User: Fold these one by one.
Assistant:
Number 1:
Amino acid sequence: MSGADATAGTRFPVGTFVPDPGRGRLGAMLVAQAGVEARLALRNAEQVLLTLLIPLALLVGLTLVDVVALPAPRVASVAPGVLALAVISTAFTSQAIALGFDRRYGVIRRLAATALPRWLLVTGRLVAVLAVVAIQLVVLGSVAAALGWRPALAGIGWGLLLVGLGCAAFSALGILLGGTLRAEIVLAVANIVWFALLLGGGIVLPVTRLPAPLATVAGLLPSGALAEGLRTALIDGRFPGLLSVLVLLSWAFVAAAAAARLIRLR
Amino acid sequence: MTKSTSAPSCSAPLARAGRSVESSAVSPSTRSDAAVALHAKGLVKRYGRVSAVDGMSLRLPKASVLALLGPNGAGKTTTIELCAGFQRPDAGEVRVLGLDPVADGERLRARIGVMPQGGGAYPGVRVGEMLRLIAACSARPLPVGWLLEVLGLTSCARIPYKRLSGGQQQRLALACAVVGRPELAFLDEPTAGMDPQGRRLVWELIGALRRDGVAVLLTTHLMDEAEALADQVVIIDSGRVVAQGSPAALTARSGEQQLCFRAPPGMDLVALAEALPSGYRAEEPMAGNYLVRGQMTPKVLSTVTSWCADQGVLADEVRVARRSLEDVFLDLTGHELRS
């Protein structure tokens, strides 16, 4: 009789650990993982600053202050850009940083050691991103409406499609970045890219207002394609054009393929 | 009076009569066997030119505890990762619960519990949230509230993971490993960074797992842990098995006894050896801690104490001991410090 056996009955009654394993239900696993990740994103002050407070400040600031020349009503040009920024903040920057630190803290290993299938591990993150983006759309859309935004109703369906494609492209890029580099480097790169896209990627300034060479590049960036597509859909109420859709799809496929090859658990 | 504290190399192993698993019983076959939870044969894992695991064979019967004991960098964690399907071996075969850990990874992971080294959780997640998430991955998990309570985590259930102490993080990791009622638990250094109470709790839990029929493969570099918990100890070094057997068998193998005592440091060991019959060795492994190796008889004992008396010295804390697992371990893996 070992020392461990002699005292095992006191805290752990006989039969406590009799094996009875099995995989949880897929739906329950998805809800549990996406729920935790969405709550973590909404609880983290830096992430909320990036995903809600800065977009809100830009929405109000650019609408009310005449720093950038825009056609009236200003909010009609500003709101689509801010919605695109919200997608970039959550799906790319916030997601990449979270993944970088999750890897550092061993959570990907931890989850990979459970019955959670690998595809669900990724799906859970994407569902969490969509949940946060949905909240952003409601909050930013409501504030924009209060500022006088009246988006073309005919374009709302196209707008949602673009937001979905934007989430796909930026999530794939975010997972690629957050899944391959060291957490501190991810933090720096994700923020620098966010800032660069904000200024030169068609967010604050519509692509057509950028200097010529930059305008060409910005139109082929996922940020430019998303923001311009949203402007076309929500101002003019029509199909945003095949170019926007193809640019977003291409970025999504290329980044997802690269991530599938390069991502590391730790 | 002698005090209860003893010289480090004299710690007495726990008596383990009656339930030892002899290493000679190991069969090289990896065919699935109803009584075997894990079977590995000739496992090799290389990183570049370094072999982290270099021809490892293991056999873990159901409802038993196997401790992989080795210095840092011996290949303990890599072995666990190969057995749990996190890595593909470069050579060799492993069957866990009759399954190939890589090819049948998803089916296998539904039946095992894993405590990775250093645990693992979202930095901002609360303790209760994390355990509920892992519990949701199982069909019939243990009650989360009870598990938190019994592992002393209720008071920190709402604290983010990154603010927990090392011991609290380890206890959460252990909870995550057992919450799904697994058939086999892989525990990589389960007591690292824990205080004595935490260690005691983990030992109890591992004893209860074994009692209830769970097979446990754990790694440790703590001799007392391996001696207290394991049915079978496998000592590994540089990715190879250097010895295996029950703790009792390992410590008895040399058949050598030793006499330990304390006295002022720097006594003349040559003179002491000359006073003893031939075949006995005298050592002073730490200043003031003396060892006489060889078969102990009343005559030898009285020779040593009277030789000390002749030097005008009182031999204190005199006792006869078998070699401890620590002695076996250091003999096999060397005394130089590992990084």
Note: Chain A touches chain B through 49 residues (CB under 8 Å).
Number 2:
Amino acid sequence: MTKRIDFQVDPTAYRHWKVSFDGPVAWLTMDVDENGGLFDGYQLKMNSYDLGVDIELADVVQRMRFEHPEVKVVVMQSGKDRIFCAGANIRMLGGAAHSHKVNFCKFTNETRNTFEAAEADSGQKYIAAVKGACAGGGYELALACNHIMLTDDSSSSVSLPEVPLLAVLPGTGGLTRVTDKRKVRRDRADVFCSTEEGVRGKRAKEWKLVDEVIPNSKFDATVVERAQEFAAASTKPDVAEGITLTPLDRTFHEDGSVTYSTVEVQADRAGRTVTITLKGPEEAAPDDMEAFTAQGAQAYMLRLARELDDAILHLRLNEKELGLMVFKTQGDPEAFAAHEQLLLDNAEHWLANEVLQYWKRVLKRVDVTSRSMVALVEHGSCFTGVLAELLFAVDRSYMMEDEFEGDNRPIATITLTGANFGPMPMGNGLTRLQTRFLDDDAALAACAAVKGEALEAAEADEAGLVTMILDDIDWEDEIRIFLEERASFSPDAMTAMEANLRFAGPETMETRIFGRLTAWQNWIFNRPNAVGETGALQRYGSGVRGEYNMERV
Amino acid sequence: MLDLINVSYDTQIPNNVGLSSDKKVLKALERWHPGYINWWNDLIPQNFQESMVYLRTAVSVDPKGWAKFDYVKMPEYRWGVLLAPQVEDRRIPCGEHAGELAWQEVPGEYRNMLKRLIVIQGDTEPGSVEQQRFLGLTAPSLYDMRNLFQVNVEEGRHLWAMVYLLFKYFGKDGREEADDLLRRSSGSEEAPRMLGAFNEETPDWLSFFMFTYFTDRDGKMQLESLAQSGFDPLSRTCRFMLTEEAHHMFVGETGVGRTIQATVDAMNKAGITDPYDTDKIRNMGVIDLPTIQKKLNLHYTLSLDLFGQEVSTNAANAFNAGIKGRYMETRIQDDHRLQNDTYKVLDIENGVLIEREVPALTAINMRLRDDYVRDAAGGVGRWNKIIEKAGIEFELKLPHQAFNRKIGVFAGKNFDPDGNLVSGEDYDKGITQWLPTHADGDFITSLMKPCFEPGKYASWIAAPKVGIDNKPGDFEYVKLHMA
């Protein structure tokens, strides 16, 4: 794959989505350009999607929150006749490498989660207005909406036909949302998920697969009415104007490195390692949210989040062999804390809220990134607040202890802030510190007690915030050996082990979607029954059925 | 002993499937029946419901018995369930099960696919009746009115045939689908028919004839391929439906032929030789040949769209499963599995029409369409004979398959009827010569005056050469009820 997949899109050049605004209601119309596939070899017929379609959707959802805070209800609908969305493009999946399929599913899941959470996080409620066939990934789009409306024209239906049709599973949380979110009885869910044609009309409502079923002649009017009702009932404060998410300042280098204004991505392809260095603020924190809003997308805290987000996505899709991510920070911890504090103090302000919610999402994106991750707390670093969260997101962390010869940077410290104690929960619903100290309230309380203090190595070690502290004598060798060893392990074993260890604690719908379902899905994606030469996914479209090995595993 | 040839009238529903001893299905059909009658009563204008129509009814499924004629009020027509006789030791003719014994029960793994095919087929049957519901009011003769109603009642019976299969073999799901077949309605905003072509109104009688010639011929091809089904009850049902469908195409072919006859007769009488002398020709109350060509272009291309995408997964699946075959499957000399064969389909590459080899399984639709094109050409040749015999220089032609398409690789592309890709400007200029304009529609509508006197015909259409059931020219095919 030589082509770089870009996660930045120009909103004036969407190929697959149309957005229009009517006061507090936005109309989001899926109208996929058949010939607009990201790769050659397939056509995106019947509103089916590939990663490119989803990248645009993610951009729409993100801009909806930052650029259109006046929007309280988003209606997702189809621009095609008799089809809502046919789901992920099968030929694309059939032709894609396993790694691409997995990354595709992961990104689409993150996008679904994002607009699903938009109501709780930002007061933007998504409605799916389903007309025509709504199958597989199409129904999963609807499932992630907060309200599903289905027309009753005796042919429009919702379905998850993956199992009978393709011998794979719905890849974006379909099974989990059917049972956990919509509370469909499990035996009915079993019928639903093994019936290719799905369920339509009143039964869809009776089985709780949709929220309402509306006579076709009244459908359009009812959707408008419902959207206006929801908008009127919304508690989201009125905001006159959003900010513009301007293009990122970034440069790609030949060797795989990328330079952003606040993030440096340094690739070492031979060592299969990438170092991501986040830079502290150079300017003073804005005085208030008015000043922050005036800075808009250039405001440091937002810029850093956007750049880190883009870097992670870029590395996931475009640099698959850089299996080890090393996180570093450089900057003034107090200056960083001041920038962060403005947001935490004004969490009620719409933009402060959006930026904090965005940080929550970016950190979750780090959590589910299937690379070995390590953080190095070096002298001169600023692991403070949300940046300290990175220490608790990665698999291991190492911290410099005492002065290093010839290193005149300020001594390494870690500072916990309010951001570490609530606003940045993981998918399991707990903070990263709660997850770290599961069942150890004393340790958690001790951390809370030192909030705001710049903790040096020994104190950080004492508080359990880092894996290991190393002085000048040991640092270089220990780090080198760790990196070399880590980069030599089987990537599959690493991915699996890390994913097992990262998400301690309770299961939530989100952890179930990512953990259980993607594990099963990825297993199926590797099994001959689906992807072998005679498997169902490979044979789809040929007319010849998949051949199954009937042995139960 | 169960008599499977002669139609049994011992239940409310005439049948040759032993319904009286199949209580479960009988009950389901009887429960569905009132809804069907309501559908029919709401559909056709009331005075026609009360009229006595000289219709044929099947009393047995062998060649001698399936066309018994008598007067009947349409709502009292005995719509029945009739299957062609079972062929002993019939084998699945195609796909991965080729050579195995045909299924007498639905195989579980293909249940959904079969059900969908039956529902789609079933949905077209009442669809066309709905499209044609107002035509009786402007019938050019009682003969034509009778033919219209014959077509209508038989389409209704075809719905019955599909509904029987749904009741008999698809349990609860089948009953729900059968109800929905009555819920959907042509052109309805609430619940339209499944295929786009069946939601367009049939505005005039020339459209009706074109429809029965071209679109019902698509129906014939679909039935031909379902008649090859490895699911034996579907095969037997479709085989019998085909005998009725042949009459519909007869109505279409002779209807267009008689329209042409009236035109050339009028031209000759007035001494007009130029078929493009439109105003003069139209002033005589007949339809000029170029307009007939335009109507032909429209209906032929709409019907080609009914075959779906040139390369189709669904068609491939259905063939491979053995539930839908090719036209005359058993007469084709190949392995009937097609897993390693290819078939040529038309495609566009850099603006040029090319033939592309694709896996034969995925080209099943295209192959059926090719068979259709050959089948449809026959009648056009016979129409040209009428023109030739009259000494007029004009030839009707089937347009190129790329012209005026809404589905498939040619959809939305500016092809002219000869298959040349032309500029948007040339297309706009040409289109009034290629497809009926609103003005053409107005003209044709102006001719649609009812002619209800026995033996008389509207100006634009000639009398048939032979009457139905060999009745004389002035036979009163419909005894109109004048309320």
Note: Chain A touches chain B at residues 152-155, 164, 195-197, 215-217, 540-545 (CB under 8 Å).
